[in-house]
Every structure is written in structure tokens, then in C-alpha cells.
Amino acid sequence: xxxxxxxxxxxxxxxxxxxxxxxxxxxxxxxxxxxxxxxxxxxxxxxxxxxxxxxxxxxxxxxxxxxxxxxxxxxxxxxxxxxxxxxxxxxxxxxxxxxxxxxxxxxxxxxxxxxxxxxxxxxxxxxxxxxxxxxxxxxxxxxxxxxxxxxxxxxxxxxxxxxxxxxxxxxxxxxxxxxxxxxxxxxxxxxxxxxxxxxxxxxxxxxxxxxxxxxxxxxxxxxxxxxxxxxxxxxxxxxxxxxxxxxxxxxxxxxxxxxxxxxxxxxxxxxxxxxxxxxx
Length: 280
Description:
This protein is α+β, with helices and mostly antiparallel strands. The protein has one domain (43-247). 16% of the residues lie in helices and 26% in strands. The chain has helices spanning 8-12, 30-37, 91-98, 148-155, 163-175, 179-182; strands at 42-48, 53-58, 63-68, 75-81, 107-109, 117-124, 137-140, 190-198, 205-208, 217-222, 226-232, 252-257. The strands form 2 sheets. A 6-stranded antiparallel beta sheet has the order 1-12-3-10-6-5. The mean pLDDT is 96.
């Protein structure tokens, strides 16, 4: 153990500075999105079975909704550009721009070199939850996804219905890829409905029973043409464990809505305008 310096208190007391001030982000016309969404018909539905995953397609300007049905259930969401699957959801940059847990008005950003909004959250029935006394919140971008490699590391067992494997199978089936081709495209997720945080003192990642109930949903406006994949996590509501068949699990519902009109002035965002010269 090192001994604290004489100015330890002063060092800790330095005022934090936001890395990415939100007022410099492109404005979100939430009212415009909601006006376009109002009355839009449902044009596609996908049921994600418990401990499995399914892919779905969404066009720019459409809305997709993820709903809890039958019982409390969390889901792991991946997104790719429908034109180029190397452009995918970048959870780390989304976290840096919006925070550890996402809410209405936040956006899901894509990977370099594109770095553009893929989808915007326009409705969330769990918005009331906020942060609890433990520092827990819902819809996190801090966890990765349960996977067979960490499962083997910690338990020595092979479990094939964790979210990483579920998403890999779903993408392989949807895109006509082999499992070996699909797996590197699976990436860190938005943990939909999952309630998580960091333990005070140790900073360890924790989960607790999700507050989601049947009928709760989160809704996204697609900014570009997307392929999505959603896994109904084997942890169920993640109140005890994941990567096993112990938890009670339920299906999730994905619905796609097609608005008759788009928000005034909206255009699908172009990739980043950075010239990629990197100083050369």
C-alpha cells in the first residue's frame, strides 16, 4: 500500500469536467419524431424466444419497439448498417457521449470511421426509474454481453445460449454467413431493460432484478437502414445469474412501425466528414 500524499484531499477535490458537453451534440427534434410516429401502422413483428436471438430489418425513417411480454426479461441489442455490416453500434462512444445508461432523446452511435447516429430513443416506459439508491439504472452501455469465453474462464463449462452465441447464430442465419464469419461482427450491446451499475468503493459492475414488466417498451427511430439483432438473455430479469438455464426467461417482442411522413427537415445522417488523413 502506498501512503497518501499531504495534498491527497486537494487532489480528490478537483472539480470534474465533462469530456463531451452535450450541448455541442446535434440537436434532437424529439417532438418531430413523436409526431411522425403518432398513428404509424405496425408493418413487421418478430418474437424473440427465451434464451435465443432473432434479427430484424429496419429502414431509415421507420421506428422499432422492443416490448417485454409475459414476464420480466432483459435483452441484448446489436445494430449494423444494412449497407455495410462493418459499421456497427459503438457502445463505448455512445457511453462517452450520453452516459452509462440511455434514455429518451439519446442516440446509438456507429463505429469509426462513420460515427453517426444509427437510432434515436424516442420513448421509454422505464424512464421513471432514473438511478436508484445503489446507483443502478436501466438500458446500460457498460456491460458487454454474456459470452461462452468468460463462462468457461469462470466456471470451466461451455454454455451455448448466452447472448454472444445467440447473436452469432441469429446473424449467421439472417445474413447467410458461417458462425466463424458472423462471430467477429457481434459487438458490445445496449442492455435493454437490464438494471445495472457500479458498486461504490470497488467499482465492480453489478446487476439486479430489472424493473421491467409486461407491456413496458423502449422505442427507437431508425436514422439509417439497419439490421438489428436482439437476444432474450438467459439471465431472465438478471436478478441472480446469467449464462445458465436456472433463471426464468420470457420472450421479447420487436415491432417495426412505418410513419406516413418524416419529421420536418429530417434527413438520414451521412457518415463523419473527417478526411481520415490522420495528420499525413
